[in-house]
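Protein Entry — a single chain follows
Fields — amino acid sequence, structure tokens
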Amino acid sequence: MRKLYLLLVLVSSISFAQRKKKTDYPSPPAITYDTLNDAIKGTKWFFNIDNLTDKELLLDDNPNQPDMLYFVDAKKVQVILNHRDCKVTINGTYMILLPYLQSPQVVFGDYQSFKMARSKNNNACTKPLIAFLEQYLEVMYDTENRTLFFSKHEETAPMIGIPN
């Protein structure tokens, strides 16, 4: 009995000695971006989808234009197309980065300014708009003239200096 007790104590002390104390590693800092989301939330911008090109779109505060882009809150967006042959509402989310000159930041290759929800109502008239919005857009926000200008981000090759 005594040998069994000693064996039990020996095995338990060995098993406790081999357990490692859990170390807490500091978590990496959260990535934050400088965005226009808080500045434009709750605003309505009007445009005409017929003026959409593959590289740019101009929005303003003129309610006489048929289509509207409504920034519901700091994350949600709603696009309302109101043409005679295309009446549809598209919901989605957005994150619009400030221009690089104002706030230099790293942008990953899969960044999209808008992410629009897919639905069965997305027909031929919405596909060019969704394709345009779901890419990396450069946004010019003019508070004086109340305009919002989206243009396609052009990739530029990094400049490499050659030593003399």
The first strand starts at residue 44 and ends at 47. Strands lie at 44-47, 56-60, 67-71, 76-82, 87-94, 114-116, 137-142, 147-152. Residues 157-164 have pLDDT under 50 and may be disordered. The two ends are 86 Å apart (CA to CA).
